[in-house]
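Q: Focus on the shape:
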Amino acid sequence: MNENIIHEILKEYEMKRDKALKDALNRKNKLYKEIPELEKIEEEIKKVGIEITQSIFKEPENGRELLNLLKERLNNLKKKKAYLLESNGYPEDYLEPKYECNICKDTGYVNRKRCKCFDQKLINIYYKQSSIAEILKKENFSNFNFEYYSDKPYGDKPSPRSNMKNIVEFSLNFIKNFDTTAESLFFYGDSGLGKTFLANCIAKELLDRGKSVIYRTAPDLIEGLRINKLNADSSSYNEYLELLKECDLLIIDDLGTESITAFSLQEFFNILNTRLLLGKKFIISTNLLLSEIMAIYPERIYSRIFGHFKLLNFYGEDIRLKRKMII
């Protein structure tokens, strides 16, 4: 991961944290003038807090009774402070800093691990750099059109339109039940049938709901891992891999177009297996037949795909020409 990007994000957190603390101080000074008693209560709360700390270190065994008395006194002061704020028309937490992320308090880290909001910032930067944000403005459910798909039976199968409606229904349920089900989606079928478009539709819906989503083509995924692994900065590979493993949804497009090597197979298996063990979800798309998947990839990979993914077959005529004609 680019160290400059990490530095910029940490700098952004610092600025937000400083602003939250400054705003809180301004609110406090304003209220001290408006409600002088409030300042006295806060000073008393600080004193009791210091006394509690001292009592723990001075007499850890014999000071139990004193400690309980101090805690009771502290709780009473806090209740008095809350009442004073509320009776003057202010919420109980009015004097507390208002952080953008209440989980990490705008530090970016929780228990020495990156906060989810930090990962989302990295993902947002990736999206901006890859121009996927612009793509999602066009490729979303509001622009989805079933008219592109034929309503005539396709051999012995239902019509492509009927099939597509079923696939979209599965996709909408996937979004709706994202937090409660473990199943991922596997789109397969010829090119030009809307697999990438539908994956982008789902990505936009989940991004709008605050989920972290990463989209990569299979070649870019493997190449990114290779480049980061060869990077002189040893943390680069781990940072990149961590994002791929921890994001809420990982979309891998065009599986089968990457170079099939021992490295690519091992890296793909590691990501696939780790995310499945963590209960993380995928959308994987491919132009390959299921039989070709079994021929190209080892059993440990395709068995996990067939066992943990909803297999959705796209079929029909290439809709790209129809889209141009309708547009």
About this structure: The beta strands are 109-110, 113-114, 184-189, 213-217, 249-255, 281-286, 309-314. The longest strand covers residues 249-255.
